[in-house]
Design brief:
Eight copies of one chain form a homooctamer. By secondary structure, chain A is an alpha/beta fold. Chain A has twelve helices and nine strands. Chain A is globular, with a radius of gyration of 20 Å.
């Protein structure tokens, strides 16, 4: 049950359309459920204004399935599953045929149910330095779309060929948030930070070799950005960037 | 010259109140000035919708003074100077007596001219884990206030005594952005991230000793936050956090 | 031969029920045996008041088997084998059919013989931040149970959804020792440290990615805990935590 | 107000010796006080069964003084101040003349009021590898004594001259907890871990040079101890080790 | 004695203008001299085609003076001394009054004798990201000038305000070598690398704080540059960059 | 279209042999093409005077093929593909049969079309410390040859048997650029740097184990070279070294 | 040809038994041979008084075979090949049937020809902390035996059960050199260093997990040893330790 | 009392020249003395065949003085004090006027009493890469001389000017042990390792800046040496190198 549904419920109670007993029943979702191996947080969507997410890595197919079922039972109607292997996706497809299940192999994302339709005119730009950063970028973009944001993808606009990035100056100027995704030296975040007055969320990626140290070079680069509007998430954390960008993008509407 | 002033100017031209020649003169600010040791960027306030900032560390008094003078000559009416030593502040106080100059010793911030008055109802919470994090917190808070945001300070609410933080649950729920500042293990960002649906900007501080490695422990902690809405800036980067928070806080109004 | 058996023996000698010769024979277990590739320490259970443990990683099936046989021959009646692969477990099952052998696949623990029955009323809480930390938690819990302690498992109570943890406040208050197990930012140890006055043993796990650096982020976080009662063991060292917790839990009885 | 005082109070109420109004007044200590720069946690002594502690590093004399005064006003009768500079100690001596104030320059510890008298027969051994580790050891020893534990100091018993350590075998065997403090290669913790069946708390120190990296070598050494009963606290964290050791030492009595 | 002088000498011998005895005398410079604390390499200028350099850091005034005197005695006519403190410079000024001595305090460079006059039309660009990088830049620029190269300085053209750098596109296109000097995220090297087809030598500087780790962030950034023509020298190694740039710049003429 | 072709075109226009319309058509190559997953930079060869390169790692066969086709369509006549797996090479061989395709398995390089014929008399030496460094060395050598430079290979001349290296003193003295490739302690770069007056480009390799940390030891060694003419590229970056060396080698001719 | 053979040869020449021509022929072994991919150093056995060694890692079977053949042709009669995979060993067995070839799978060592017979009464002790360190220990022991030293193996004598090590005190006192091999916290080197007056060579191993960082913990521990006679080689470098120990052990005889 | 003195004593007893009572008195030196802050190890010189050493860093003047007095009282006749500040040396000079006290300011070494006279013909070479490494080299050289070895100093023979080192080939060939001391890239150890068949002890120094990381670059370089006979001690550990070198140098005589 999300915030809007709860408001509607309470207004129904106020107006007498819904009996208090009935309301009680609907509200009596436990704040979390104890599955032993997991305690899905059924109040989070209420508290945080977002549908629920399952981080799939290191979870068995059975665990993912159990958590998702518990959420659906508690009233969630769409679930985002990240870091989902193709094998687990194959299995989930069958289990959640009724609710609908789509798998995005590049992003390794599975979605049970439907994405929210865009709730804002604001636009999030997802930019990458290179082609190899696309899996992280798709994780970010799909997350933001799932949470109800419009997304514009600008892939392979790294700083070694600046004219590519500069040809999108106008788009950068009109975005509400920009997600800058890059491995190697991660300079993209700084350069975009200087070209826009929107908040920039930097996502370092593990793309690179040798002294890139699995993304550390890009991470440090972004943390030390000489442009003022750049904050950073963990290496390869496309989901986090998409989530925060969507949070910011929707501020105008929901507050 | 900021965006609003430029709009006013252009509307003045449109309506005939200002001659094109006069407008031209006002607009002919060079995009940057070459002082040899520095090239102040006079178009940044236009491009980025913010007053200009000088990062004072490792700059001599003469350099800071020269850059500030160049900015004022180019039409900026208030300047934020960060990482400013008391000695340099003393000297600047005399040079900018006319424009007004205030020094905040805890934050090591100097301001030439006036802060913007708050341009939004939205509120930024600046929370710290301990007393020793206050200098970084004040850098963040003053930066956000300088840029026209309202700020609520919650200091010394670290996670080892949770009831202190939990007693401010309502404030956290109503904030538009939260800045979570902590050294040592930096857990504050994650815990706040779970208590609010506002974007959280984590600022690790160098408070701690031994295996805190000058803030690295808190930095890694925040980058790996299990709460989804947390992004991070450099260790002790109060300015950056205040700047981004203000960017986000003002999105509603300016877009 | 453990401490109690030795006491019984000596009292038997004192009372005349056992001849000194017979006692001598029983005591003449060599302090350690030289298998060439290993020197099992037969006096450790005496010195340290605990049954013997074999760390299975990087040992061949033959080596594990040889060490266990030597221990049994020296009078140990139950053996804990950690980091045991399913393949080796399969083989050991046959070899130690007589003594009894149980394999716990999640914890990768094998036990020859029986666990001690609980020797204390005190209770150890084993808490985890997430579902993926369970293998480490089970290693800790089974170790403590093997050594004769009662264990309460609280899994998936990470700090991003504090209400889950707070709903177990009473349990935390009544525990004699708490083991806090978490990957990513490892904040669980600090938060639990502030909620209980029992000693907390933090176990960072390698759960996470990117800047978690295989558990380093959680390790540093726990070492820098702002709560005063937290000490730490190696990344993923569930065994060590269970061992120490049991040591502390049994202090009351054996001293 | 500590746990025992509260029990006495409640029993007074039960027996009618104290009126409920009077009890209410005494209990109405705020859970924490807001000094702006700090929020001293007046319920912690209740929650954690220990007198209050102030971590003095990076706090101004005025802040330390204000926090201590707030604690005393809330009923605490003795306060431990760690990492206290001689200069600040000099000033505090005057402010807290009434309550009594003692400064221990080697440990850099100041104590307002009296230490608790030992509440247990159990003994904590504080051992160091060398002479240079003594300041950290004294921080640990004084903390444990302040909290009501007996302490035996064994200084300069490093592993390069094993006979020194081995001559204290009996003491090690009879201790309830051992604190092993060492810089350089930190091997002391492992060796003691093999000689006792008490829990060992390792404290790596920053004593050393070059590849000791300010205590990292000793920290890693202790985290990887091949002895099973060793847990570790932060580099140079004598206070933490003393606090935990005392927690464990007093378990027998208070539970 | 440099390469050209030696050629002249040999041609003089060939043509009979110089007797073989006289030539022998001039050539009989020892390959190195043994001062005990140093062994100045008198054949290096011959082998490497460059005047001699003294790295002043950690050398006493007496050592620098002794080495310089030995070089002059061996025929060197100009000496570059890097990392020279103002105090040592003051003293050297007196000792080498005859030969001429100039001190450049920003670069901390002292020069005994004269710089070579430019030996090539080629131009080296020395660019910095910010004002604080200037000391390193001056070390590079003066070194290149000392070795006979023309230098163009472009200071404070960091990537957060790209238009500053882009306004010097033509200069970048016409340079023979570019030295890109930046701290913080060090993105300057990559961006310049994409704008020129000259070799770029990146010099990371220790300018920055927190996660810049004394220049490591910039170093890693430059080593991972996505632009192909970038090689890197040590943090703050202005001298090395100037030396290599001059080597490359003079290739055309001397080969 | 490379620089020379463009010059010819423009001279054709000047002389009237080519109509402006025809020239326009030829010049109207888009500066980059948007393939969605990649934006190949068709002006780079013009801007940087070099044929185009595809970095093959982490790119799918389809992506490599698409980028190559786009380049050929835009007029490039030879393409270097680095980090190309044998499997992808097999497939590309068929697709680019017409243009010619050669695969070099040791270097993991594929070339579509022909190498440039050497454009200079200058020679690049590619030296390695050991046999295991050869794959990186071949990447460097083939890159330089592809770009039109002559290359001399000196493999297995590591410093532990100096006479091997010293027997090539003359070759080292006559080279225009030297690429020094070594893993383990990477001392080769320093030693060569002292034997030649050509610029040396150091390439640390990941050859080694233990404390070589995947090439970090060699990287640090080369960055700290006591020889003045050494600059460094990323670990295992043979391509980068070959590219820069060729840039430097061709300076004489093209400027 | 080793030192002794050369001496014999020269004495033969002196005494007239061997003609100078014949001697010349025998001496005319090239100092190294150029196989392209390798330059085997045929004078090393002369220079360094040891048979030749091939480091097998990352070398193809063909390369190993070629180098060995070249050595045999140059007069070496026994060759040690380290880090040799079982597969390559299988193949080499056939190629060097004539010369004799033995493979030691635990140590991953292959030997062509015979070991030298012990040339000294001195004894090298090879001690390990645990069973898992044995592969490294065998590499060390076999290397020392190959080079003509006597070896005593003491395996699994780690410091957590000191009585095992102490029971070999006499052996330790009588050794000429001790090799101390340990992973985890690596304390063995320090403890042995305090028990013997022979030089101790520490070999950290990659045995361990989590914060052992692949042997770094043991490496740092050994480098910071508080015992004075300990020097250290690379992680897992059994060969190096065996080589150096044998060098030291044979000093008495050959000098 | 050292080994020789003890032998003399025992032979005196055997021959009747010394009464057993008298001998007993002389032998009754306690194995260590407990000064509280230190436990000087009076049996070490017996066990390790060396005079006693005090590591002066972080010890107060009073502590050093007390330990030295205790040693002298126990029969030691000469004491080496390392890392001794000039101020403490000044004070010690007065206290030990009787026994004789010499201070070596470059090495920061103080010696109470006399050095042993050389006990062997063998020679230790102490070589440094540069002038700035001399303080570490002197610590090594004086330590070796104190312990009775002959030392040859070769300073400033770094690899960037190989001919300097090569001119001492003969000396290197005739040494029994070589100590190779270098900062920056530390290549000296590898190059010397290839030029001699004596064991080489590498001492990395903290000389350097930037990516030398206080000696880490040189340390890693030496640990990864491609020459086989190199072992390593801690950064700047001149004492350790001198001690081990002397141990090895004296093996011939004492065994």
């Amino acid at each position: 049950m999300n915030q809007n549904e709860m408001l509607t419920l309470l207004e129904g109670v106020k107006s007498g359309q819904i009996s208090t007993d009935e309301a009680l029943l609907k509200l009596k979702v436990k704040p979390f459920e104890d599955l032993g191996y997991a305690k899905p947080d059924h109040h989070r969507s209420l508290r945080q204004g977002a549908a629920e997410v399952i981080y799939g890595e290191r979870k068995s197919y059975e665990q993912i399935c159990g958590i998702a079922a518990s959420m659906l039972a508690a009233g969630t109607d769409s679930i985002l599953i990240t870091r989902l292997s193709p094998e687990a996706a194959e299995a989930l497809k069958k289990d959640f045929e009724l609710q609908g299940f789509t798998y995005y192999p590049v992003a390794k994302i599975g979605i049970v149910g439907e994405c929210k339709s865009p709730q804002s005119e604001g636009k999030i730009i997802v930019a990458t330095g290179g082609t190899s950063d696309i899996p992280v970028a798709e994780e970010a973009a799909l997350t933001a779309e799932f949470l109800g944001s419009r997304v514009l993808r600008l892939y392979d606009v790294g700083v070694s060929g600046l004219h590519r990035l500069l040809s999108y100056k106008e788009e950068l100027a009109s975005a509400r948030v920009v997600i800058a995704i890059a491995g190697m030296e991660g300079a993209l975040a700084s350069v975009i930070g200087g070209l826009t007055n929107a908040p920039v969320i930097g996502v370092p990626t593990s793309v690179g070799y040798g002294a890139s140290f699995g993304g550390v070079a890009a991470l440090l680069s972004m943390l030390n950005s000489c442009a003022s509007g750049v904050s950073v998430v963990n290496i390869d954390n496309g989901f986090g960037a998409g989530y925060i960008a969507s949070m910011i993008n929707k501020l105008k509407i929901e507050n």
